[in-house]
Design a protein that fits this description.
Blueprint: H1 2-19, H2 26-33, E1 47-54, E2 57-66, E3 73-77, E4 101-106, H3 124-138, E5 145-150, H4 152-164, E6 170-174, H5 180-191, H6 197-208, H7 215-230, H8 240-247, H9 251-257, E7 285-290, H10 297-306, E8 310-315, H11 322-325, H12 327-343
Helix pairs in contact: 3-4, 6-7
């Protein structure tokens, strides 16, 4: 009898163990993340040129895939408009360790992508259509597709979600307000009154003369504005990825959409406003704001409450480039959001 009981207990124990999948070890997760077998981009190190159809013909945009995770694929939308993917390289220090597959992407007209001399292409609906074409080409879908838009990329992310959110698993709106007029109001009523008024007056005088190419313009703006609200460290110490992104900024896109001034909007985005439409966004959403940003952090928190399933991440040491000057807060908050959505444990913060 004792032998029979022992055999039964052994069988039950083995059956219980067999019913529970063994926890994946860090080494196994790492090997899975680095398993590029079956991929068609191994030769190029993950780089793909994706053909895009536009009203002005077909062009190629540049993308680069890093990692392998069937359930988490993050597409990065850079700012500018007309900047590049390069400043997102700060996330290389965090995302691979979290097992997140992610895609660098230069929008049409930026850096490694084609740069057609076609002014009619630089408008929001055309860019949104481009993002959708990139999504399709990369095979991203509602089971794995996370979209992160920073600054101008946040405009695109909001617009994309309003038109194509059925394809999204998660949305991240980083350092971008949902209203051009509100952005200008914050600059005029909060940021500029806090500046050195004598220096600001000289900047405004240069702008009034449209003398934006004058070296004095940036000489004044760097300590007055950039080192306080774009990246809070001396410009001489700015990281290489950010410097490369600024160096490659396409002014032919930036000026028509943003306008020539660094202190507010005056281009096509001047009247852009999607605050009333935010409740239409149902995808799990993370909104990232920062204390010293050019974007009002209170407005950013409002966005997280207006969307149906929002969470707010506040970077208390950060500015517009919070992925640098409040890097740990930014990266860990982003990773937690993606992990919660992927595991099905995401809950909106109200």
């Amino acid at each position: 009898m004792k032998n029979i009981l022992a055999l039964l207990l052994t069988a039950i124990t083995l059956q219980g163990c067999a019913g529970r999948p063994a926890e994946e070890t860090p080494a196994a997760r790492r090997n899975s993340y680095l398993d590029y077998s079956g991929r068609d981009d191994v030769l190029s190190g993950g780089v793909r040129l994706i053909p895009i159809t536009t009203p002005k013909g077909r062009f190629n945009v540049w993308t680069k895939r890093i990692g392998n995770n069937p359930s988490v694929k993050l597409l990065l939308l850079h700012g500018g408009p007309g900047a590049t993917h390069e400043y997102f390289e700060a996330l290389d220090s965090y995302l691979p360790g979290a097992g997140i597959e992610y895609y660098y992407y230069d929008q049409l007209g930026s850096a490694y992508s084609d740069q057609p001399k076609e002014p009619d292409l630089w408008d929001i609906p055309r860019f949104v259509d481009e993002v959708e074409q990139v999504r399709q080409a990369l095979g991203l879908d509602k089971n794995n597709f996370y979209l992160l838009g920073h600054s101008w990329g946040g405009v695109l992310a909001i617009e994309y979600a309003l038109k194509h959110q059925q394809h999204l698993k998660g949305l991240i709106i980083s350092n971008m307000m949902a209203s051009g007029p509100a952005y200008n109001e914050y600059a005029n009523k909060v940021l500029m009154p806090e500046m050195d008024q004598k220096i600001l007056a000289e900047v405004k005088a240069l702008e009034a003369r449209k003398d934006y190419a004058n070296p004095r313009y940036m000489e004044l703006l760097i300590p007055l504005h950039y080192e306080k609200h774009i990246l809070r460290m001396p410009a001489a110490e700015w990281p290489d990825p950010l410097n490369r992104a600024f160096k490659h900024l396409n002014q032919n896109i930036y000026i028509p959409l943003q306008g020539p001034s660094e202190l507010g909007l005056s281009g096509k985005l001047l009247t852009w406003d999607r605050v009333a439409d935010l409740p239409k966004i149902a995808a799990p959403t993370l909104v990232i704001g920062a204390k010293y940003d050019t974007m009002d952090p209170a407005h950013m928190e409002m966005i997280s409450k207006k969307v149906r399933n929002g969470r707010y991440l506040f970077c208390p040491q950060g500015s517009h480039m919070a992925m640098y000057d409040d890097q740990k807060t930014y990266a860990e908050g982003l990773i937690k959001f993606i992990g919660d959505v992927d595991e099905g444990s995401f809950k909106p913060a109200r």
